[in-house]
Design goal:
The structure holds two protein chains of two kinds. Chain A is mainly alpha-helical. Chain A has helices at about 1-15, 25-40, 40-45, 60-65, 70-75, 105-115, 125-135; strands at about 80, 85, 90, 95. A two-stranded antiparallel ribbon of chain A has the order 1-4. In chain A, strands 2-3 form a two-stranded antiparallel ribbon. The longest helix of chain A is centred in the first third of the chain and has 16 residues, at about 25-40. Chain A is globular, with a radius of gyration of 15 Å. The two termini of chain A are about 25 Å apart. In chain B, a hairpin with a 5-residue loop joins strand 10 (about 185-190) and strand 11 (about 195-200). In chain B, about 35% of the residues are buried. In chain B, the strands form three sheets. A seven-stranded mixed sheet of chain B has the order 4-3-7-6-5-10-11, with helices on both faces. Chain B has a two-stranded antiparallel ribbon with strand order 1-2. Chain B is of the alpha+beta class. Classes of the chains: A mainly alpha, B alpha+beta. The interface between A and B is medium-sized, with 13 and 17 residues.
Chain lengths: ~140, ~230
């Protein structure tokens, strides 16, 4: 928990000094920021803000907390049908990621989301993510 | 004839676009504000007179169209008579650029939503999926309750795609890209004489800002023309 928060603070600092900082955490954070920018930001917004009632937000989303165990599979396989975030109902299609993301990339991406835009969610280990993905038959063991 | 005309029009359009991109400061600073005019994009034709008087220049115009919007209303060029409008091409299940594009267009809409001189028109390029109820749901989810301000419209596949070319917002079916359509995410700004006065990359907030700056310039021109015609 406190580790997650520290990671968030570090990430914030890393962004604040403008990608100049180095170190394991910030680099991983930069890589996942890039994955987010390439695969997710067009829909969910650069600040995770979502779009009206079409695309749910990731910043401050209660869905992340309530469905923690389903998040890795959601990213790999996409999701559709009615879904509620912060009391607002959404009903669109989120496609599977447009190119393959490895288990470890999904882990980093999830941790980026958990620690960005004021989110203070519990971070994931790669083991946990691989287990989730095995549960939906979609782990690649990488 | 169409097939040779269109690519040429597009090339000319892109050329016109690139010059406006390179020289925005020039056209803004060199003339007093009241004579400032936006360029005309697309193919132009110069028609000399037999008697030797100055030739007329005829600019590319948007052809006749007939679409149906989210309220099942038929909309045509007449719907936009005397108005300025901003238009784009999207589809409801677009996995790539549309949400970003539509959120940028929403930004423009929000600034002009109380200005009856400006209308908005989004065409679906996936009429097979985007039925009227789908368009209606999409519009409402985007927060657009008043269809007469921002039309989300459909027509046959062929008419939509030829319109996209006319608006210089290239859209085409491409099975190789996510979602099955390649499309540029451009916004076009159209004047009351159906002429294209600007094309903007809807994915780029700076370009969208240029649209926000151009709109009042065009509105001023329209107002001046309407006064002169009285």
């Amino acid at each position: 928990m406190s580790w997650g928060r520290r990671l968030g603070v570090l990430a914030g600092a890393g962004l604040a000094v403008g990608l100049g900082a180095s170190g394991c955490f910030t680099e991983r954070q930069n890589e996942s920021a890039k994955i987010y920018a390439t695969h997710c930001a067009n829909c969910h917004g650069t600040q995770g803000e979502g779009l009206q009632r079409l695309i749910p937000p990731l910043a401050g989303s209660d869905y992340l907390v309530k469905n923690r165990l389903a998040l890795a599979c959601l990213i790999r396989k996409g999701v559709q049908g009615p879904l509620t975030v912060n009391g607002v109902e959404f009903n669109q299609v989120m496609p599977p990621a447009d190119s393959h993301l490895t288990d470890s990339q999904i882990t980093n991406l999830l941790n980026f989301i958990q620690t960005s835009w004021g989110n203070q969610g519990e971070v994931f280990t790669i083991r946990e993510v691989s287990e989730q993905l095995q549960g939906c038959g979609a782990s690649d063991g990488e | 004839m169409m097939s040779t005309f269109l690519p040429r029009a597009l090339r000319l359009g892109l050329f016109a676009l690139s010059t406006t991109l390179l020289l925005p400061a020039c056209s803004l600073d060199s003339k007093p504000a009241d004579t400032e005019r936006l360029p005309f994009l697309g193919e132009r034709e110069v028609k000399p007179h037999a008697d030797g008087s100055p030739a007329d220049t005829v600019y590319a115009t948007i052809p006749d169209f007939r679409l149906t919007d989210q309220d099942r209303q038929v909309i045509t060029n007449q719907t936009f008579a005397g108005k300025v409008y901003v238009t784009d091409f999207f589809f409801a299940t677009c996995p790539s650029i549309c949400p970003k594009m539509q959120s940028e267009l929403l930004r423009v809409y929000t600034k002009f939503k109380d200005d009856p001189r400006v209308l908005f028109l989004s065409h679906t390029i996936d009429p097979a999926h985007d039925s009227i109820p789908v368009l209606r749901d999409y519009a409402q989810r985007l927060g657009i309750q008043d269809a007469s301000r921002w039309h989300f419209a459909t027509a046959s596949h062929d008419s939509i795609f030829s319109l996209a070319r006319a608006y210089m917002t290239a859209a085409q079916v491409d099975k190789g890209v996510p979602g099955g359509f390649a499309h540029s995410g451009a916004f076009a700004l159209i004047d009351p004489q159906r002429r294209i006065r600007g094309v903007y990359d809807g994915m780029n907030p700076l370009e969208v800002q240029r649209l926000l700056d151009d709109l009042p310039v065009l509105l001023k021109e329209v107002e001046a023309d309407q006064k002169a015609a009285k």
